[in-house]
Specification:
The chain has about 210 residues and is of the alpha/beta class. It has helices spanning about 1-40, 50-60, 80-90, 105-110, 160-175, 180-205, and strands at about 45, 65, 90-95, 125. It has a 4-stranded parallel beta sheet, with helices on both faces.
Length: about 210
């Protein structure tokens, strides 16, 4: 009887030793994998909430920081230290362009010192560079001719068709910057475009009496 009891105790101890380390290794591996995925998530800085919303549709895993919210005037934003830090960490910056952020974005870029989001770099996407803008001011015209911005009206996100053009460019840019998720970005764009086309039809139907 004593020998049997000793054997039983030894067997139980061996089972505890056998199962605990793999469970611990599994937990550690899960934590490392989670941390690795989080570290690899794309960091995106946007100049306006409309671009932040679009980035989240096409890249839901991205960490997105918008410099402004819907109740702020995007023409006049203070280059706060928190925004400088956010732009310094960004893999991609998405802004309207056409002079909308001319009063504060260049200062942010200079102070952030991030080469990925400087003019001409792949990590800077100016939406207005990729669509035809409304009402540009004719060369040499007075201040009341054309839009207040010489290149045209930069509030292009108010036109759903122009927004769709920007979405395609944004998807291409995301694929270039983050190749491992290329197919995911394509799939997200296709799903978003399908939904967006349906919304445009509905908006046109509602606006027909106007």
């Amino acid at each position: 009887m004593p020998c049997k009891s000793s054997t039983s105790s030894t067997s139980a101890a061996m089972q505890r030793t056998r199962f605990k380390p793999p469970a611990l290794r599994w937990a550690l591996a899960t934590c490392v994998l989670w941390a690795s995925c989080s570290a690899q998530a794309l960091t995106v800085f946007t100049c306006g909430p409309e671009w932040a919303a679009l980035v989240r549709e096409l890249a839901p895993q991205a960490q997105v920081r918008s410099a402004t919210h819907s109740r702020q005037d995007p023409h006049h934003i203070e280059a706060r230290p928190s925004l400088i830090a956010a732009l310094r960490r960004a893999d991609l910056a998405v802004c309207s362009g056409a002079g909308l952020e001319a009063g504060w974005l260049p200062m942010l870029q200079q102070r952030a010192g991030n080469p990925q989001v400087q003019p001409g770099a792949a990590g800077l996407l100016m939406a207005a560079d990729h669509v035809k803008l409304l009402d540009p001011r004719p060369a040499g015209a007075g201040p009341f001719a054309g839009d207040v911005h010489e290149q045209g009206n930069p509030h292009l996100h108010l036109d759903p068709r122009r927004l769709a053009e920007v979405a395609r460019v944004l998807s291409d840019r995301l694929q270039a910057i983050d190749p491992p998720r290329k197919e995911a970005y394509r799939a997200r764009l296709a799903a978003w475009e399908s939904d967006w086309r349906g919304r445009i039809v509905g908006w046109e139907r509602r606006a027909a009496p106007l």
